[in-house]
Amino acid sequence: MRSKSGKVFHGGPRWVGKGIAGLLVAAVVCLAPAAALAGEEAGHKEAAPARLIAPMGIVTFTFVAATFLTGWFMPKKRKLLFKWHRVLAIIALACALLHGGLVIFLD
After folding, report:
1. Own/partner pairs for 34-38, CB < 8 Å, 24+ apart?
2. Could you read off the pLDDT of 43-65 as tens digits, one per residue?
3. Per-residue pLDDT for 15 more than 50?
4. What is the C-alpha end-to-end distance of the chain, expressed in Å?
5. Mean of pLDDT values over 37-47
6. Helix (H, G, I), strand (E, B) or coil at 75
7. How far is it, in rounded angstroms, from Cα 27 to Cα 47?
8. Rounded to an integer, what distance in angstroms lies between the CA atom of residue 6 and that of residue 8?
9. Is 87 exposed, middle or buried (0-12, 13-18, 19+ CB in 10 A)?
10. Among positive and negative, which fits the CA dihedral 21, 22, 23, 28?
11. Is 52 exposed, middle or buried (0-12, 13-18, 19+ CB in 10 A)?
């Protein structure tokens, strides 16, 4: 696809990728406090970080699944998906390390 100036477009605008990444970060930031508050309302007496084990496991699984799917569909749109695959893999690894640390040290 070409613009009026004759330049070739390769995908959408650059801000789209940043918007999606921002949504993912916002989801993680909102999920953790919500789980902690739900535990307080239910009357749990555990330490606050211990209540984050299950939500971090869910977040980790979500990022691992997204990494798998970007790898699965990579033959169709390699340039775009490889960048996302790499970013999602790094985020999934960080979440897995945090989740594992919570399990080992708090449970």
Report:
1. none
2. 556 667 778 888 889 999 999 99
3. no
4. 54
5. 57
6. coil
7. 22
8. 6
9. middle
10. positive
11. buried
10 Å Cβ neighbour count for 19? Answer: 11
Give the count of alpha carbons within 13 A of 5, CB side only.
3
The angle subtended at Cα 50 by Cα 44 and Cα 51, nearest 5°, is: 55
The pLDDT of residue 100:
92
What is the percent of the chain with per-residue pLDDT over 90, rounded to a whole number? 24
Nearest to 62 by CA among 25, 35, 37: 25
The dihedral built from the CA positions of residue 27, 33, 35 and 37, taken in this order, carries a sign that is negative
The model scores a pTM over 0.90:
no
DSSP for 2-62 reads B-TTSPBP-SS-HHHHHHHHHHHHHHHHHHHHHHHHHHHHTT--S-GGGGGHHHHHHHHHH
